[in-house]
Amino acid sequence: MRFGRAQKDSHIGDADRGKIQQATKTTRLSVFNKITELFGTDAINTDLWEELEEALIGADVGVKTSFEILDRLKAKKPKTRSEMKEALRNSLIEILESVDDTAGKLWGDDELNLNLKMVNSPAVVLVVGVNGSGKTTVIGRLASLYIKEGYRVMAAAGDTYRAAAIDQLQAWATAVGFDVIAQQSGADPAAVAFDAINAGKARLYDLIIIDTAGRLQNKTSLMDELAKIKRVITRQINREPDEVLLVIDSTTGQNGLMQAEVFAKEAGVTSIALSKLDGAGRGGIAFAIAQEYGLPVKFVGVGEHADDLIPFIPESFVDALLLDRED
Ligand code: GDP
After folding, report:
1. Is 213 strand, coil or helix?
2. 13-97 and 123-313 share one CATH topology?
3. How far apart are CA 196 and CA 110, in angstroms?
4. Which atom of ligand 1 is closest in space to residue 137's alpha carbon?
5. Residue 27 pLDDT exceeds 90
6. CA distances (Å), origin 138, targets 4, 245, 313
7. Which ligand 1 atom minimizes the distance to the CA of 133?
C-alpha cells in the first residue's frame, strides 16, 4: 500500500481541512492575524520588516527560524504587500517541507514506510514524550487509523511507572479494538517491549506501538531506559524501531522546543506528533521544530475525539494560519 503526498492529501478531506482551520484558530487570532494585518496596505517599508520579525517571534516560531523565514522572504524580492504575503506563505511551506521526512518513515513521502507485512516481523513504533503530552491519546488514535487500513495492531504498556497510564491505554484499546500487552506497574519497560514483540511475531501482528514513561525530571535514567528499550527492539526485529515518534504538546510553546531538543539528541527521534493544536495559540512551534531540529511533523492532534489525529500537510497548515481576519 502506498501513501504518496497526493494520497496523504486525499487523507485530509474537507472535514479535516475544516478541523485544521478550527484547531489553528487560536494561533491565528492571537498572533498570525497580526501578520496578515501587516499586509493590509500596500507599501513595503522598514517598519513592515520589523513588525513581521516581531510577529513571527511572538508566534513561537523561534528567533533563529524567524530570521531564516525573513531571509527566504527577502530573497524573493516582493514588491507589494500582497506579493509579500504570497512570498511569506511560500517561505513558511518551504521551511516545513525542507525536512527530509524520509528520515522519519511514518506516512513517508512516497509510501507508508513502516515495514508492514514483513513475515514474522512486525513494524515497531516507539512513542516518547513527557507525561501529559498526549502519548496515550496518539497511540489510541494511531492504532485506530491503522486498524481502519486493515492492519493488525497491538500496543505495549511501557509506561510502567504509573498504573493510570496502563489503565488509560487499556481504555483506548477497548474503545478502538486493539490488543495490549501489559505487566504490573513497576515492571521493567524493556521486558514489556520484549514480550510485546514476541507476542506480535507469534500472533502475526503487523504493527506494535510501544508506550514509554515521560519523567523528564529524571532525564538520565529516562534516556538510559529508552536506549535499553531500543536495544531490545533492535535485537528482536534485527533493525532499529521503524519510528521513534515524539509527542509534543503544542500548548507548551518554547518549552516544547526544549523537549524536542533533548529527545532528538538523546532518544533518536525520527518524527513528531504535535498534540493539542486546538488548545492554545502556539502552532508556530511547528516551524522551529522543522528548521532547528530537522524533524518532520507527521501528525497533529486537533481535539479529544478518536478521529482528531490528522496527517500534517504543510500547505493546509500554513493556509489555515494565514486565513484572513475573522472573529
Ligand atoms: P500522556 O501522559 O503523554 O500519555 O498524555 P495523554 O494521552 O494522557 O493526554 C493528556 C491529556 O491531554 C488528556 O486529557 C487528553 O485527552 C488530552 N489531549 C491529548 N491530545 C489532545 C488534543 O489533540 N487536543 C486536546 N484538546 N486534548 C488532547
Report:
1. coil
2. no
3. 29
4. 7
5. no
6. 22, 10, 17
7. 3
Domain 123-313 has CATH 3.40.50.300: yes
Amino acid at 308: D
Contact of 156 with 166, CB cutoff 8 Å: no
Q: Give the whole-angstrom CA distance, residue 318 versus residue 88.
A: 10
Distance of CA 101 to the CA centre of its chain: 12
Mean pLDDT of 267-290: 86
Q: In whole angstroms, what separates CA 136 from the centre of its chain? A: 14
Q: Residue 25: which pLDDT band, with cuts at 50, 70 and 90?
A: confident
pLDDT band at 104 (very low <50, low <70, confident <90, very high): very low
8 Å CB contact between 284 and 35: no
Q: Where are the domains of the chain?
A: 13-97, 123-313
The residue whose CA has the least distance to atom 6 of ligand 1 is 134
**What is the rounded average pLDDT of the residues 153-180?**
95
CB-ligand 1 contact for 134 (6 Å cutoff): yes
Name the grid cell of 134: 498526549
For residue range 30-46, list pLDDT tens digits in order. 667 777 777 766 667 77
CA-to-CA separations, 101 to 6, 97, 274, 297, in angstroms, rounded? 15, 8, 15, 9
98, three cell numbers: 525542507
Q: Which residues contact 220 (CB under 8 A, 6 or more apart)?
A: none
- Could you give the C-alpha distances from 63 to 74, 108, 212, 258, 287, in angstroms and in order? 16, 29, 31, 14, 11
Residue nearest to atom 26 of ligand 1 (CA): 303
Q: 250 CB less than 6 Å from ligand 1?
A: no
Residue 118 predicted with pLDDT over 80: no
The fold adopted by the segment(s) 13-97 is Four Helix Bundle (Hemerythrin (Met), subunit A) (1.20.120)
What is the strand order of the sheet 179-181 is part of?
A: 179-181, 153-156, 207-210, 123-128, 243-249, 271-275, 297-301, 309-311
